[in-house]
Amino acid sequence: MKTNSKKSEKEKKEFIIALVIVGVLVLAFILSFFLPDLIKEWKYKLSLVSFTQTETHVTDENGNKYYVLNRSVEAISTDGVYGLLEDKEYRFIGFMHEKDQTPLYIVEHERDMKGMVLRLETAEEITISNFSPISADICFATSDYPYDYLVAADKYLENGGNNKNDEEYINLIFDALVDGKEVPSPMTQESASRIKLKSQKYPGLYYTVMFITDKNGISYLQDVGSGKCVLSPDKLTVRMS
């Protein structure tokens, strides 16, 4: 009986050892698939700058402070990830400080959605007055896909030869919002479009202006950032109709 008992205990031990070996082999097999990706992700995160947040700004690990720009400023495109704040990425927009190559403007990205654009503390605040627009994408108020364009003049294009030149309308928008008389925003809207201005001075960024027509057929331009609202110039209203 004792011999059988010892044999049974031995078999149990061998069975447990076999289970452990199988478990280790299965774990090794699983890790062989996932570990390289985990290491790659870990190295990737280590290569990025970390951020902290306060009520007024975010600060990167090098002490650079970034402040949110006005709501008119949107990112057209980005040039890669600069840093992380929890699940939020901050991406380059192609402007670097000449001395230390610190990005002057960055954009939030969270769950693949573009968020607010931020500027380095020493970088210029962007307004309609200093944006120097040369062209525009025109979108419906609820869409990011252009249904029309205001085309830049030949002098801004590498190859020239534009069949269409909308510089006059760009100038009308700029002059109206910079020098035009401010009026109350329309209480009702019959239709609304976003005029997303582009600039050679700030490639990679839009400056968004609303074109609004009220129920009485009167059209307005409104700076999304400052809130300033003016009557739309007649020529621009015809062009936008």
What can you tell me about this protein's structure?
The chain has 241 residues and is of the alpha+beta class. It has three domains: 1-47; 49-120, no CATH class; 128-240. Helices cover 29% and strands 32% of the residues. Strands 1-2-3-8-7-6-5 form a seven-stranded mixed β-barrel. The longest helix is centred in the N-terminal third of the chain and has 46 residues, at 2-47. It is elongated, with a radius of gyration of 29 Å. Mean pLDDT is 82; it is low at 35-47.
How many domains make up the coordinates?
3
Please list the strands of the largest sheet in the order they lie side by side.
1-2-3-8-7-6-5
Sheet-strand content, in percent, reads: 25-35%
Q: Provide the residue-averaged pLDDT.
A: 82
Alpha-beta content class:
alpha+beta
Euclidean distance between termini CA atoms: 101 Å
Percent helix: 25-40%
Topology as H/E string?
HEEEEEEEEHEEHEEEEH
Count of helices? Answer: 4
Largest sheet: 7 strands, mixed, barrel
Q: What best-fitting shape do the alpha-carbon axes yield?
A: elongated
Give the uncertain stretches in residue-range form.
35-47
